[in-house]
Amino acid sequence: MNALTLWFHKIGSPPTFYRIAGALAPWLFGIAFVLGAVALYGGLVMAPRDYQQGDAYRIIFIHVPCAWMSLFAYAFMAVNAFIALVWRIKLSELLAMASAPIGAAFTFVTLVTGSIWGKPMWGTWWTWDARLTSELVLLFLYLGVIGLYHAIEDRRQAARAASFLALIGIVNVPIVHFSVNWWNTLHQGQTVRLMGESKISGDMVWPLLVMALATHVWFFASLFARTRVGLLELEGGKDWAREVALADGGGRS
Amino acid sequence: MKPGSTFAACTALVRRDFTLIWRRRGDALNPILFALIVVALFPFALGPEPENLRRIAAGIVFVALLLSGLLALDTLFRGDYEDGSLEQLVLSPHPLALLLACKVAVHWLTTALPLLVVAPLLAEMLNLPHGVLPVLLTALALATPLLSLIGAVCVALTVGMRRSGMLLALLVLPLYVPVLIFGAGACNAAQAGLAYLAPLLWLGAGLVLAVVLAPLACAAALKISLS
Amino acid sequence: MPEIDVHDRPALLEARRLAYARNDEPIFGPLDFVLHAGEVVLIEGDNGAGKTTLLRVLSGLLEPTSGDVLLDGEPLTLSKLSHQVALLGHQPGLKGDLTALENLRFAAGLGGLRAGISPATALAGVGLEGFADVPTRQLSAGQKKRVALARVLLAPVGLWLLDEPYANLDLEGIKLVNRLLELHARRGGAALITSHGAYAFTSGTPRRIPLRATHAPGASP
Q1: Which residue stretches of C18-170 are H helix?
Q2: CA A19 – CA A14 distance, rounded (Å)
Q3: Per-residue pLDDT averaged across B8-37, rounded?
Q4: Which residue in chain B has the smallest CA separation from C107?
Q5: CB < 8 Å from C in window 51-110 of B
Q6: Which of C22, C24, C61 has the highest number of chain A CBs within 10 A, making it the mutation to test binding with A?
Q7: B12 pLDDT more than 90
Q8: What's the CA gap between B205 and C171, in Å, rounded?
Q9: pLDDT, tens digit, for every residue of A76-94?
Q10: How many domains does chain B have?
Q11: How far is the C-alpha of B190 from the C-alpha of A72, rounded, in Å?
């Protein structure tokens, strides 16, 4: 076995992952906060006003990175779901299931910020434009995975069933997007596009990218924290888990 | 000492399922009644003006049939799960995907086909223009098997759960959206005088794919659920 | 360590360090045993000891948490197994709206028919000749069990996995089960049955394997 495979096996072992994730998570949260603050300052204060949309466009500095994360989280979940189903690796099961609520949260924020953006633009809180509608269906996909995971008692069977659903869902995401686009062209009166015609200037790009980085870091920080909890839940009877519990509890029984 | 042929097994399964439904044929009316009730609610909600109803008639019929089908999905595997027959199907020496495809086919024939027969009546209740009716029926004929096949995969994931109705609806909704968009969209296009062949072809393509892939997915999902 | 067998035939079914845990709670194992053609083995254990789970693992429906099951010396797969095993599970596997005979005809269509037997003769073989046209839901629990046994009789397989075959049966029914098991063994088949306790065969008792409920916290992975 070469060094890389050996390293993978070590990382995949629950106690090792628990330790490493526990050490990394606080740092990642910190980095995410700093990056996020920088990005927000850049976007809300430093970036110039858009000549078409005025200051209202500034919500994209949250909306767009969150939209990207909602898709990234789903892809991450799907990859781990595939590994979990084919090779039955416990850690992949937990990573997949932990990504679902984080992805759902990002999707929710995307929808809310999209809605907030829409209000000054078209005067309504909700519009059935292609992107928002696809995000709404994506939210339902996430909720379905989460719901199925929590509906089955056996944790590992639950993870396998929810992983299977996540894989079916990822086949569905492009189909939904395609069909919603067609649907919008059919009912032409309501077609609007969220990204305006204005070109995006350089001053606007860097806060966007920094925020994208911040959300990625935050995703992994949150993922590590959630997966640690999931590991303890799954491996509660094992020696390493008891040692952790005793150490944290300071000997209290 | 050899097992029977796969064809004989499928025939036996189809015959058994038809017999079981025939012995409870009163229940077979339930989806039709439900669809009628749903459709009847809309004039009460929106007012009886024919112009109002005409614009959304096709969409309402589609949604009504979709919801009826969703309610009927529960009966696909529940009976077999509760008396242990489902396990016997999984353990039989024949490809599970093929057996499940037979079950879904019988289920569609006994729940969706009656709905298709009633669809013209539902359309008439909502003043659908007569010229759109053939498009509606074609779209339904393509969409309902697709809904049954997709629904079967989701039911397989939740088989044996008590009170799985809400969860099942949550699981199928994202998967049903494209079917509904193309199916009802074709009818709306036809009603507006626009081209309607493309969405029907998309439905057809989806159906062909589903006929091949959904039984396999259903078998995999069942094996996960029964483990 | 596999048990030393006295029959000196190739092993039909072999379990090596077989264990199953659900939600990190051990259900049974590690278990080792060997089953040969012509043998009847009884898995004994109290309620909750994991007998049904063990049978489901052996039938291929469940994947073991650790260990192996070998069929004819090769790792078990569901497709291989389905041609060779009949499972009498926790539920009888019969449709209530069908008559006893219709249920057996369906089973014959699905699983094939053993040579020299038909649904009608199988029904007679379990003592239910007059009940061919009775809807199964009207039968008593013991009668349903007998119909399920008839289904197992029809299957053209060598290995029987029977979960609590004596449950719900009267004394006549228990003797019937033992008769069928002995006949099956003499024909070269094998059977693995679960029960709380054993009921004597006419020719000696079956080999017993005890299954104790294992709930040992802190077991290392």
Answers
A1: 51-58, 78-82, 100-111, 119-125, 141-154
A2: 9
A3: 93
A4: B12
A5: 79, 82-85, 87-94
A6: C24
A7: yes
A8: 60
A9: 999 999 999 998 888 999 9
A10: 1
A11: 38
Residues 6+ apart with CB under 8 A from C109: B4, B8, B9, B11, B12, B13, B15
- Cα distances from C167 to residues B158, C46, C89, C163, in angstroms, run 30, 14, 12, 9
Mean pLDDT over residues B174-188, rounded?
95
- pLDDT at position A79: 95
- Per-residue pLDDT averaged across B184-200, rounded? 93
**CB spacing of C87 vs B91 below 8 angstroms:** yes
Min Cα separation C216/chain A (Å): 9
ipTM of the complex: 0.89
| Identity of the residue in A141, A160, A172 whose CB atom sits nearest the CB atom of B224 | A160
What's the rounded Cα separation, in Å, for the pair C179 and C198? 14
Q: What is the pLDDT of residues B40-50, one digit of tens each?
A: 999 999 998 88
Helix (H, G, I), strand (E, B) or coil at A219: helix
Higher pLDDT, C8 or B174: B174
Domain annotation covers residue B1: no
Continuous segment of H or E residues that includes residue B73: helix B50-73
Residue B14 burial (CB < 10 Å; 0-12/13-18/19+)? middle
> CA-to-CA distance for C58 and C193, rounded, in angstroms?
12
pLDDT band at C216 (very low <50, low <70, confident <90, very high): very low
Q: What is the number of other CB atoms lying within 10 angstroms of the CB of residue A13?
A: 15
- Please state, in angstroms and rounded to a whole number, the distance separating the CA atoms of residues B127 and C167: 61
Is there a contact between C31 and C143 (Cβ–Cβ < 8 Å)? Answer: no
Are the C-beta atoms of C194 and C53 separated by less than 8 Å?
no
Scanning the structure block, which residue is given the tokens 């008396």? Answer: B83
Contact between residue B86 and residue B80 where contact means Cβ atoms under 8 Å apart: yes
Check if the beta carbon of residue C121 is closer than 8 Å to that of residue C114. no
| Low-confidence stretches of chain A (pLDDT beneath 50) | 189-192, 194-198, 251-253
- Classify residue A197 by burial, with Cβ atoms within 10 Å: 0-12, 13-18, 19+: exposed
Name the residue range of residue B18's domain: 6-225
Chain C hits for A153, Cβ within 8 Å:
23
Nearest to C127 by CA among C180, C163, C80, C78: C180
Contact C66, C17 (CB under 8 A): yes
Contact across the interface for A235 and C24, Cβ inside 8 Å: yes
Interface residue C156 vs chain B (CB under 8 A) = yes
Residue C198: what pLDDT? Answer: 60
Q: Which of B225, B207, B226 is nearest to B145 (CA)?
A: B207
Task: Name the one residue in this structure whose structure tokens are 């049978």.
Answer: C55
| Bond before B178 cis per omega within 30 degrees | no
Question: Nearest to residue B57, comparing CAs of B147, B117, B119, B116?
Answer: B119
Is the separation of the CB atoms in A69 and A138 below 8 Å?
no
Q: Do A176 and B170 touch (CB under 8 A)?
A: no
Q: What is the pTM of this model?
A: 0.88
Confirm or reject contact between A153 and chain B (CB < 8 A).
no
Domains of chain C: 1-84+157-212 (3.40.50.300), 93-156 (no CATH)
Cα torsion B177, B181, B183, B187 to 10°: value is 150
